[in-house]
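Hi V.,

You were right to ask for the full record rather than a summary. Here it is.
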Amino acid sequence: MTPASVTAFCPGHISGYFKRIDGHKPQVTGSIGAGIVIDEGVRVSISRAKNSSIAIRTLDPSGVLIDEAHDSPPLATALSRIGVTAAVTTTCRLPIGAGFGLSAAALLATLAAANQMFGCGLSPEELAEIAHETEVLHKTGLGDVAACQGGGRVVRTGPGIGGPILRHFDMPHPIYAVSFGPIPTPSVLGSPSQMQLVTAAFPKVTPQNVEEFFRCSREFSDVSGLETPEVKNVLAVCDRHHVPASMTMLGNGVFAYGSSAEPVLAVFGRVFRMQMAQKGVRVEEDTS
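Predicted structure:
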């Protein structure tokens, strides 16, 4: 029996540092860098429809709707790429555009659910390729899709979906974050002068453990020219309390590691708690 709806979930991704890699086509354009796949992300429900529609819902911690939008050019592009029309509802508990990789998560979850619903027969790699190319086209991200295919603390040493990725499952403690709002990703990724600063700030070493990851991320944050005054202030306080922390890339916020981070960040606003994800995008259920 054909299901009435299909639901998929994709974890988000906090990037600690990155460098843009421009290729001759979208498949080999992307970024290298390191980050953490997080267990908070985007849940997408797909159902059949004569004309496609998109609802993007943001929930508070208790699941109450706090915001809803009805326009997403990247999601519309993705549906068109696989040749389907559907009613798409996305939900998330993290702020959109704040450095949590939610655009990539929404694309991957939407494509996974649509693939299941419509029997497209596309492989996980093919779905990831479409999501990645869509992100590059719309300048909403460069490396989050590759990271969100699986879990862990990731180090990406090649651009695109086929680039080498190291996944370390070495972060058992909670990750906390505070956000002061979005940084428009297209304005950063589309700025040649900003990308020059980002390239120059890229770490010369590959982090072998969590401590080195935060050190590399923090150095990148300092040198890249991306830090906002709010971020600088929070990071200075984290330093005084010896809390490993850095800027969410790309978002006006800070992420920090370990239980001692929560009370430090709480001074600055709502604190989001998450864990390192153990796995990537997956179809959760279908209902008849």
